[in-house]
Amino acid sequence: MKKMLIIRPDYDIGTNYLFKWSQKVIDVAEEKGWKTEKSDSEKATRKEFESRLKNRPDFVFINGHGNNELVVGHDSQPLADAKNCSMLKNTITFTRACNCLNSLGKKAVKKGCIAFIGYNKEFWIPRSHKFEAVPLKDPLAKPVIETSNIVPISIIKGNTIENSIANATSIAEKHILKLLISSEQQDRATLKAIINNMGALGFEGDAKAKID
Amino acid sequence: MTENYVQKLVVERLMAIPPDVSFSVGEYGDFTRNDLIKEVMKNSKVGKATIEMELNFIRQMPKISQMIK
What we know:
- The complex is a heterodimer.
- Helices cover about 40% and strands about 20% of the residues of chain A.
- Chain A contains six helices and ten strands.
- A six-stranded mixed beta sheet of chain A has the order 2-1-3-7-8-10, with helices on both faces.
- The termini of chain A are close together.
- By secondary structure, chain B is mainly alpha-helical.
- Chain B has one domain.
- In chain B, α2 packs across α3.
- Chain B is about 65% helix and about 10% strand.
- β9 of chain A pairs antiparallel with β1 of chain B.
């Protein structure tokens, strides 16, 4: 049985949005018969992360905040960095956090991670104040996070790394064309974010890697 | 382009976004349109990230226009 480890801190607005929207990825994994291990909210810690990596997941999906060197979990505490990224060995990892691809991604692959997908700039989430309490109904965040979700969903469905990114790019293009002709002023925020995020999406490691 | 021109350009473009919209920008936090304008004028880290986002948007326009068949 294939295994996914998903990390979902939930301590501020940004992580709350990612927490809620990541459920759709878990649903797809479970529909496909995957075993899903979750480190949620206050359990999104370095200790829990390292402990669960010992169960040898095929796919690791980290949500959180980050920078060039590390990704943080609950309460902005370091979760993954150069010291423990060797534990991503033999996994495909998708990190939905700012800037992590730049240095952390390279180090992880050097230490045996098959492929590390992530962002080399900030990951922007636009949101409407009216929907703050119901992120899944936020029409500004929806195209941005749904597009990002295409990457892990494609991997779960057996696509290669390069095809998973191509699938997300194709969905992003559809959203962009729709947003360009929108008369809603708010949609300008979504357009800016989706273009930025797609330009920042990339990977290190084996482009042809897949889990099947 | 001078730094001052770029700041003005980005501020004008941000003004086109309604005030009841915010952006979550990773570890920097959550920012309304007006917050971002202040950060751009201060040339803070998130201000620089905002400038980069806007300039990237403009740079991508030729590529985006090619999507329209």
